[in-house]
Specification:
7-stranded mixed β-sheet; 18 helices; globular; about 40% helix; 4-stranded antiparallel β-sheet; alpha+beta
Length: about 500
């Protein structure tokens, strides 16, 4: 395997250079136990500062340059940048590169919270579009090409479109068609492809953003592939993006002390794909199909598959290695199911009021061990099934629906996160004076902080948006489900910060 950065790191270790430079632990000799033993001597010796032999991520000319070029070649982009502050940093870079202050960009209302930070940094103006809602599962689908066309009809000055594809549940938008629409209006297509760094390496998966004509794509190489956590890639392609400007932006927002273990893991993950990408994806598919087939045997438990969503809700294709179960017909929430699984030593990727998501990768496929794990998952879930016929049992969700049947808030709850108006720009609120109010008394005020329930990190409300009674109610419902709050200063959500107008 050709791994230019990893090979340079290995040569550096073999030279046994004495470090009279940062970091202060000096190759691990000064590291406190037990972390020193847990990490091991080789990893600690490789935690070094910028060395001429190891290149400079801000002006790459050696092994980092070669590693990034290899990654660009693999993904079919014109340039690739290592993002050592995760896909959050890559998303910030996409927005800052493609937009100028004041430019408009089409944003799905369920975009990850990192998009908000990118909009503030770019001083860009978001035009929000609400993805289709899958009422049956309580999930949001994708933005449709028709919605994008309509947005351009209403905002002819849009400079870019941002998609989240695939989403957390592996549901991919019609990226190719949306790219054609955006380009016909001389706008760039930016894709948050955090959950798709493995796409394009097997025909059973959705095509990648680059294959579909995207101009930029941010990929969480650590989420699905073999890179270390916090290690991501930014792909850039086409004439609509200034490659030098992209490099300048990445340098602006990247630490001057990048971790070589993170960068090396990106190089190694890329090399794995070159050598056996197709077989890796086949292993992931085998593991996912086995888990799906066993879960489908459980009466009343719905395993969400392509047949349920593809061709509807803006979803063009689906990655089946995202194995989601819907618990609507059982008497428990996704949160309770995940807690029970965790007690049985199974940790899941995501939960929400109705669903539990298992993230399956190539690394899971060790046939004997994986069969044992699948058996343990199913055994744990069976303990939660209704005592009698689950289809005849009255689930908590059905009871809740009946309670809300005559309520004016019922429709808002059933249709997902309530929409509200944008009353001030993100940048104005970020630098504006703020005050704290009880959330119950904040209706009508301009929110000064993002409120998300994490995972999946989709903001219920963003800074600059007006608080409504529906949003207050929605937050109360989510809190009752036990979902952790992310974003506000008061994570109990008793209070909220608003703009002091």
């Amino acid at each position: 395997m050709k791994q230019p950065l990893v090979e340079a790191m290995e040569r550096y270790l073999q030279e046994q250079v004495y470090p009279l430079h940062t970091p202060g632990h000096k190759g691990g000799r000064g590291m406190a136990e037990p972390l020193r033993s847990l990490l091991g001597p080789a990893a600690l010796r490789m935690d070094v500062s910028l060395m001429s032999e190891l290149d400079d991520i801000h002006a790459p000319s050696g092994c980092i340059k070669a590693a990034q070029e290899e990654a660009a070649r693999l993904y079919g982009s014109d340039a690739c940048f290592m993002a050592v502050n995760g896909t959050t940093g890559a998303i910030h870079a996409m927005l800052m590169t493609a937009l100028r202050p004041g430019d408009k960009v089409l944003i799905p209302r369920n975009a990850h919270r990192s998009v908000m930070g990118g909009l503030i940094l770019a001083d860009a103006t978001p035009v929000y579009v609400q993805p289709a809602f899958i009422k049956e599962f309580g999930l949001q689908g994708q933005v449709t090409p028709e919605q994008v066309e309509e947005a351009f009809a209403q905002h002819s000055d849009l400079k870019a479109v941002l998609l989240t594809s695939p989403n957390y549940f592996g549901m991919a938008a019609d990226v190719k068609k949306i790219a054609e629409i955006a380009h016909a209006h001389d706008a760039a297509l930016l894709v948050d492809e955090a959950h798709g760094p493995h796409l394009g390496f097997h025909k059973s998966f959705p095509p990648s953003a680059m294959q579909c004509g995207a101009d930029m794509a941010a990929q969480s190489t650590h989420k699905i592939l073999g890179a270390l956590t916090q290690s991501s890639l930014l792909q850039v392609k086409g004439t609509r993006i200034d490659l030098q400007h992209a490099a300048d932006v990445m340098s602006l927002i990247t630490t001057t002390s990048p971790n070589y273990l993170l960068m090396g893991s990106l190089d190694a993950a890329r090399a794995q794909l070159v050598e056996r990408g197709t077989s890796m994806m086949e292993d992931a598919l085998r593991a996912a199909r086995l888990l799906r087939s066993e879960l489908e045997k459980m009466q009343g438990l719905k395993v969400i598959g392509p047949e349920d969503v593809v061709g509807k809700y803006g979803i063009a294709s689906m990655d089946i290695t995202k194995v989601a179960i819907n618990l609507r017909d059982w008497s428990i929430s996704g949160v309770k199911a995940a807690e029970a699984l965790r007690r049985d030593k199974i940790a899941v990727e995501l939960v929400d009021p109705q669903n539990v998501l298992f993230l399956v990768t190539y690394a899971d496929w060790a046939p004997v061990q994986w069969q044992e794990t699948v058996t343990r998952i199913c055994r744990s879930l069976r303990k939660l099934a209704p005592a009698n016929n689950p289809l005849e049992a009255r689930s908590a969700w059905k009871v809740r629906e009946e309670e809300l049947k005559n309520s004016e808030k019922a429709e808002a709850l059933q249709m997902g996160i309530p929409l509200t108006e944008t009353a001030a720009s993100l940048r104005t609120v970020f630098y504006g004076k703020k005050k704290t109010l009880p959330l119950a008394e904040a209706a009508g005020c301009i929110c000064a902080e993002a409120i998300s329930f994490y995972p999946p990190g989709i903001p219920v409300i963003l800074p600059g948006e007006r608080v409504t009674e529906e949003i207050i109610h929605w937050c109360a419902v989510m809190k009752k489900q036990g979902l952790p709050v992310s974003g506000p200063a008061d994570v109990t959500l008793r209070t909220v910060r608003v703009l002091d107008e």
